[in-house]
């Protein structure tokens, strides 16, 4: 086994995804881990029960199934430990509760996932934690925003819906000067295209609902911490009892095996469509970090190894009063794209983005913003569907 572990450290990403996170000979050679449904775990005697001197103690504290996924995420993220929670949103809120206390101040990127903002503005506020939102393009300028009680800096790159890139190394360096923990929602890139802990982040967050699960049928989150921040995260996880179900953990691990090949396809198709959209007169602007025309593209190029399958474009509409009408005409004409939340599954999805909650970010004004999740369908069919949308916009 040791030989294999060493080999996997230097192997290619698809080799690693095929083998990490599970030791078949721990379970009679079966290549997948068993799905262990657990609340009670028995102890052989009173002394072991008293000291908890065995690997598993209770269903909320991990099972061989959840451990297999945690080990896979640690291998991908380079983290000291990973917790599993029941949704991507919980993967953000649990670390916030782990590292923040009443009287603390947190800096949250303004292009953050909407429900994260809602949690900050409601529950964190009620708990006496003050939050300020900062411009995703702030870079080292974040230095000006720290207060004596700032304890946490939350990043998300690219930003939700508008895809601004953040200078993660510069922000992390400034945050550490002020003794803050740096968290990052790394769902868009997955650890295949960006490894936050290698760029100064302390805690990497994933909605594994998206590309890791990959089939639009699972909701789950993971949080992976470096050695300095692992113990506190694990304690909070135990205190809150917000654990993930073994069936879902099994499905996410199953999804990870094919995530590399799926992501290659999502990346390629999304880029082809993004480039094609750039040349269309119906489109004012394409918001995709891997396009050289995108304002923070240089940061993406410097730090990221790839781009995934979700991006937005701004529909060119002269009259702001017609933004909604034209956006709805586009969406209602689509047949291959479904109208639905989430992303990272096998199928294409579209929605009109609502940017009303932004406080400091400059948002596009040339027209309504449409977000596309490009699935695994054939690009020609996806383009034909978008053409139908454009035809409906012209008629609306
Ligand atoms: C960037 C980002 N983070 C977190 C989440 C939350 O994931 P979940 O749907 O599993 O709660 C989402 C969901 O869309 C997301 O887009």
Automatic annotation (TrEMBL):
Similarity comment: family membership: Belongs to the trans-sulfuration enzymes family.
Q: Which reaction does it catalyse?
A: L,L-cystathionine + H2O = L-homocysteine + pyruvate + NH4(+)
Listed GO MF terms: cysteine-S-conjugate beta-lyase activity; pyridoxal phosphate binding
Question: Entry's PANTHER family?
Answer: CYSTATHIONINE BETA-LYASE-RELATED
According to its UniProt record, the EC number is 4.4.1.8
SUPFAM superfamilies, per database record: PLP-dependent transferases
Keyword Lyase in the entry? The reply is yes
The processes (GO biological process) annotated in the record are:
L-cysteine catabolic process to pyruvate; transsulfuration
Q: What InterPro entries does the record tag this protein with?
A: Cys/Met-Metab_PyrdxlP-dep_enz, Cys_b_lyase_bac, PyrdxlP-dep_Trfase, PyrdxlP-dep_Trfase_major, PyrdxlP-dep_Trfase_small
The PTM N6-(pyridoxal phosphate)lysine maps to: 210
- Protein name listed in UniProt: Cystathionine beta-lyase
Name the coenzymes or cofactors required.
Answer: pyridoxal 5'-phosphate
**Keywords from the UniProt entry:** Lyase, Pyridoxal phosphate
Against NCBIfam families, the record matches this protein to: cysta_beta_ly_B, PRK05967.1
Keyword flag Isomerase: no
